[in-house]
Write a structure and sequence with these properties.
By secondary structure, the protein is mostly helical. The protein has helices spanning 17-37, 48-84, 88-91, 96-120, 122-132, 147-151, 154-164, 168-186, 193-199, 206-212, 217-220, 230-235, 262-267. It is globular, with a radius of gyration of 20 Å.
């Protein structure tokens, strides 16, 4: 029996797994093909296969952690939110499409703040460091999140779902959108600059996120959006003027590939603390203003 006021519209069920998996496999294949055809960053510090295997292993452990920790909490919570009409969006009588779209936008915005936190809060940064310490960046970097970095934000994720009022359908749409976006903006796909300039007004693109992975601290402390670019624009943290060839990817104190093996990467958050933005010789990488382009224009 339908409770008074209960919406007749859907939202109770997530997108079917076969659909999201199938589309994601297609998306990965397209990005890998484009990376080979038209690479954005030509020089590579580490052999690609070795990095791919390591990042896949880190990503595999992360996927297990998500499956064992996040999913059993967040998926039932979204069902409860839908049934009991908890949260902002469940209280508003919106058409299903608008509700899902708004949920995606609000999840994306709150994720922006989480990303700022993992850079600003020292113990959270220790986990996120594993992701940033990759010496090159491509679609495999999108999988390189320490399993602890994926389990620590489960209470944050639960709060997002409850406060925003995210239904199981909206949750699965956001998760799929986010994963696609993360794969895309970490990829080494060299889009034509005109196309990327237009695209980057809306969504985070490979060049924008390349600036976020720079070894220059001020550049890493910009471009925190994970889906829509508007959040960086609103908060004044959008940076477009660094040309890609001028960027070195990584974290200055972790530039030695011998320190970035799989076991060392997994142990990294629990090891010695370093002044991460200093080179091993104690100097801090800075950007010469002469390298920068026009402030408002995404540079090639
Ligand atoms: Zn980051």
């Amino acid at each position: 029996m339908r409770r008074p006021g209960r919406k007749v519209k859907g939202g109770e069920r997530p997108l079917p797994g076969w659909l999201t998996t199938g589309l994601t496999v297609g998306w990965v294949a397209a990005l890998v093909w484009l990376e080979r055809r038209q690479a954005l960053r030509q020089r590579q510090v580490e052999p690609k296969l070795r990095r791919d295997i390591r990042n896949l292993a880190v990503g595999g452990l992360g996927a297990i952690a998500l499956h064992l920790v996040e999913r059993p909490i967040v998926a039932p919570l979204a069902r409860l939110v839908w049934r009991r009409r908890w949260g902002l969006l469940q209280r508003m009588r919106l058409p299903l499409g608008a509700e899902v779209a708004l949920a995606v936008v609000l999840m994306d915005y709150t994720l922006y703040h989480w990303h700022v936190l993992v850079h600003k809060v020292p113990w959270l940064w220790r986990f996120h460091l594993v992701h940033h310490a990759d010496l090159d960046m491509d679609a495999s970097t999108a999988l390189r999140f320490h399993f602890a970095e994926l389990t620590v934000p489960v209470p944050w994720r639960a709060a997002q779902v409850m406060v925003i009022g995210v239904s199981p359908l909206a949750l699965s749409v956001w998760q799929t959108f986010l994963f696609w976006s993360i794969l895309f903006h970490h990829s080494n796909v060299g889009l034509p600059i005109g196309l990327e300039r237009r695209l980057s007004r809306w969504v985070v693109t490979p060049r924008l996120h390349g600036i976020h992975h720079s070894i220059v601290e001020e550049e890493a402390n910009s471009n925190w959006s994970s889906g829509l670019t508007v959040w960086d624009w609103l908060h004044g943290t959008l940076r477009r003027n660094v040309p890609q060839p001028a960027i070195t990817i990584g974290v200055p104190s972790y530039r030695n590939p011998a320190e970035l093996t799989l076991s060392k990467v997994l142990a990294m958050p629990f090891g010695e603390e370093r002044l991460e933005w200093d080179d091993p010789d104690g100097t801090r990488p800075v950007r010469s203003p002469s390298q920068l382009g026009a402030p408002r224009e995404l540079q090639a």
